[in-house]
Design a protein that fits this description.
Length: 290
């Protein structure tokens, strides 16, 4: 099967926002768009009395409507649809294996209920081996924001920079024709304690210099590979999750990593990534890496 941009559809306005984002992404990548609806009687309390045949009819009609709408907006886009009855986590992960990226609404209903905080979403993010983009409708003053404006913001840990995350961020900025803002936030190691007197300014200066050098070294091969991408480097003391959430206000996409973990216990998402997907105002790309 050819690579696609796959989006989970459930009929909510959050999944509609994800579908619109996914369509634009598929056009930019020049790949088909796949609309996937996963129905589970156990996951959706509204439809526990609905038989699968009826649910399929409802779902396929909704998918057909979405397909026609997207074809009108993007005449050259190849839009595929699929309705399945099964386990949302299993089916979304399987679909992602055949996709360049999986796109999900941030607070979908049905099988994606309570997406950002729900067990289905966390299970998908923990297990998936392909990038996932989380999209939610903006609220308040951000509602009128042009989704095609802004930079790509990438959160980077210079102590262990992941090529997968850097590759995704640079490729996205290159496709969008925008700048890439790479943010590394450092902190004074706790071992030094809170009260170091006159030594603290010197220590902070040394940490800042080392972090800046490490950031430049991590970016060097990628700036060479993508000479057309304007890179803005930010390296300062702070809190990564808070800084990324703040940067998301003016971003068109936030890119963070998720380290693959083999242990069965825990969400396997990471504290910073977990916080960013809860608080970012821009779509968030979560990129798995070893």
């Amino acid at each position: 099967m050819s690579r696609t941009v796959t989006v989970g559809v459930d009929g909510s306005r959050e999944s509609l926002a994800a579908t619109e984002w996914a369509a634009e992404e598929a056009v930019r990548r020049a790949v088909p768009l796949r609309l996937l609806q996963v129905w589970s009687k156990d996951e959706d309390p509204r439809t526990r009395l609905v038989d699968p045949a009826t649910a399929r009819g409802w779902g396929e009609r909704a998918l057909g409507t979405a397909q026609r709408r997207l074809k009108r907006r993007h005449p050259g886009l190849d839009v595929e649809t699929e309705w399945v009855s099964g386990d949302p986590v299993e089916d979304l992960c399987a679909a992602a294996d055949e996709a360049e990226v999986l796109v999900l609404g941030s607070r979908g209903l049905g099988g994606l209920a309570g997406f950002l905080a729900g067990s289905v979403s966390l299970a998908v993010l923990a297990r998936i081996q392909r990038p996932v983009v989380l999209v939610r409708p903006h609220h308040g003053p951000e509602a009128g924001k042009d989704p095609s404006a802004g930079e790509v913001v990438l959160g980077l840990d210079v102590s262990a920079p992941a090529d997968e995350v850097l590759a995704f961020g640079f490729a996205a900025a290159d496709r969008y024709g925008c700048a890439l803002r790479v943010l590394h936030t450092w902190a004074v190691p706790a071992v030094y304690g809170p009260d170091m007197g006159g030594a603290l300014p010197l220590l902070m200066s040394e940490i800042a210099q080392d972090a800046s050098v490490a950031l430049d070294e991590a970016l060097a091969p990628w700036t060479e590979k993508y000479p057309g991408v304007s890179v803005v480097r930010e390296c300062h003391q702070g809190r990564p999750a808070q800084d990324l959430a703040k940067a998301s206000r003016d971003a068109r996409l936030v890119v963070v990593g998720r380290k693959n973990r083999r242990a069965r216990i825990g969400t396997h998402i990471g504290a910073v990534t977990h916080a960013v997907i809860h608080h970012s105002l821009a779509p968030v790309a979560v990129v798995p890496h070893d």
